[in-house]
Specification:
The chain contains six helices and nine strands. It is α/β, with parallel strands linked by helices. The chain folds into two domains: about 5-135, 3-Layer(aba) Sandwich (Rossmann fold); about 140-235, putative n-type atp pyrophosphatase, domain 2 (Alpha-Beta Complex), CATH 3.90.1490. Strands 3-2-1-4-5 form a five-stranded parallel sheet, with helices on both faces. The longest helix is centred in the middle third of the chain and has 22 residues, at about 80-100.
């Protein structure tokens, strides 16, 4: 199919890896698309999405943002309704890009691993718009995928935790071999997903092979006794 590819991009490890794989596979990626869902979302990664313009600058691909005020999903009465509402705005953004880009949109790149909730909605969007879906890590083995990311040179920082076994010490911790091994033990003990697919933790990629400059951050950790996150105070490209 002719046309450009659009990569859904949060700055986290899964969307970053999907973009990297797409570029390695020779897809013509002409836009990154970040959805800023506000405080909570069933469809999208929430933490630190405000940093995606810096990361996009490092990658060298223009970024399009869907801002919190345009989502309008807060009035949805349940998870399914909110997910549908959030998906409508993604579809509108992709349709606008299909009109704006000279060759239109060939397809959308997603970093979904196991979320039927998200992937089924994006598949329906693609069907309605007549575009393809590229999901290179769908149903990947979590441990093997985490190690492939680390081995490829991805520098991944944990920016939010919300699960048994993940305490304040995990905030700001890099995902490396030691962290992966510990996550595997937590998976056996508490059922923590090694990639955080169930929302157990969220991440930010600060360097990767497809980035020209690494991302530097200053932050403060916030811990409420059961869950925590980092608040970004400053960020820059090295």
């Amino acid at each position: 199919m002719t046309g450009a590819w659009v990569s859904l991009f949060s700055g986290g490890k899964d969307s970053s890896w999907a973009l990297y794989r797409a570029m390695e596979d020779g897809l013509r990626v002409e836009r990154l698309l970040t959805v800023h869902p506000g405080d909570d979302s069933y469809m999208y990664h929430v933490p630190a999405t405000e940093l995606t313009p810096l990361v996009a600058e490092s990658i060298g691909i223009p970024l399009v943002a869907v801002e919190p005020g345009t989502l309008g999903a807060a009035s949805a009465v349940d998870a399914s309704a909110q997910g549908d509402a959030e998906a409508e705005h993604l579809e509108a953004a992709l349709a606008a890009l299909d009109d704006d880009l000279s060759d239109g949109v060939a397809g959308v790149i997603v970093g979904a691993v196991e979320s039927e909730f998200q992937t089924s909605r994006i598949e329906r969007i693609c069907d309605r718009l007549g575009i393809d879906l590229y999901a290179p890590i769908w149903r990947a083995d979590p441990s093997a995928l985490a190690r492939r990311m680390v081995d490829a040179g991805f520098e991944i920082t944990i920016v939010q935790v919300a699960a048994h076994g993940l305490d304040e010490s995990w905030l700001g911790r890099p995902i490396d071999e030691a962290a992966i091994a510990e996550l595997e033990r937590l998976n056996e003990t508490y059922g923590v997903h090694v990639l955080g697919e169930g929302g157990e933790f969220e991440t930010l990629v600060t360097d990767a092979p497809h980035m020209d400059r690494s991302l530097g951050i200053e932050y403060e950790s916030v811990w409420d006794g059961t869950r925590g996150w980092i608040e970004i105070e400053d960020a820059w490209l090295e």
